[in-house]
Design brief:
Radius of gyration: 21 Å
Helix content: 25-40%
Number of helices: 10
CATH superfamily of the largest domain: Type I PLP-dependent aspartate aminotransferase-like (Major domain)
CATH topology of the largest domain: Aspartate Aminotransferase, domain 2
Number of strands: 11
Order of helices and strands: EHHEHEHEEEEEHHHHEHEEH
Structural class: alpha/beta
Oligomer: single chain
Strand content: 5-15%
Strand order of the largest sheet: 2-8-7-6-5-3-4
Number of domains: 2
Length: 363
Amino acid sequence: MMTTYNFSAGPGVLPETVITQIKQEFEKNEHTHMSIVEISHRSQQFQTIVANAEQKLRQLMQIPDDYGVVFLQGGGSTQFEMLPLNFATKQQKIALLDSGNFAAKAGEAAQQLGKSVTVLASTKPTHYQSLPALPQDFDAAAYDYLHIVTNNTIEGATFHQNNLPKTTGRLVADMSSNILAEPYQVTDFDAIFAGGQKNLGPAGVTVAIIKKDWLAEQDLTGVGPMMRYQNHIDKQSMYNTSPVFAIYALDLVLDWVIAQGGVAAMHERNLAKANRLYDYLDQSAFYTAPVEKSARSLTNIVFTTGDLARDKMIAKQAETQGLFNLAGHRSVGGFRASLYNAQPMAAVDALITFLKKVEAEQA
């Protein structure tokens, strides 16, 4: 059987050992007497899973006790609405650095809720191939918070810890596609969220990390109960029926990350994988990786031959060699190789071998 590799941007590749464990525990056994997808979200078994998952995430990200951690439904897109509803309550104004599609979508969602959104800077005119800079005269006090996306899944530019915007105000981050892939200082942020379907597990669960004292300052009159973070914090992520299976799988992935050596080890491996691919692309006369080097993503590597029709044909050809989901997002074309934590170096080597062969044939 051919070895295959999944380069999908999300849902992304999961560790093989996690998939094996899920298969083993999917059916009822003598301990649970039912499948993991049948257990109640009110059961002691699930309450233990949630508590363990929170403790492991706190350990991996060094999340202090003054931050709440909740596992929610609705994906990152629901967070585009929950955040302004909970935190854009005083000035009713949000500042945004537009570094890609999902930053722009967050701004649009907030505007539809009646919030004022100021795009401080945007790299859209240059196809998001670099990062927008925070203006020197930015007045943080005029806004409820500054919203950024740490890793732009579609366009491949990243705010790493060393190039985060420096603000004296509140900072909110969408970490959906690089949470646990590289280290961030949680205390540099006041709220963090991440859809689970890239580095945390399967689709269906979203993590939110919320500074408690900031939340306590808010007047949430008119905000419905499901959209209030405090309700989910108070009920330990079980305010309503939780995404049981997705949180269970996330808990297993966290076990795997810990066993691999934690975020520091993941970062070292991800650097090695990304650098190997970027090194090949940079020396190639056939492919181009357009993102500015200081802003390049470790998890979503975008590149092109410069001919979008040819790129599409090559991505299709890659499937015959066991390399799946290499086509770039439909809005930009080209290629996108997603190298999430569970992606092995062997996948990168197989991809480079294929790309070299195509280059030799077509260049």
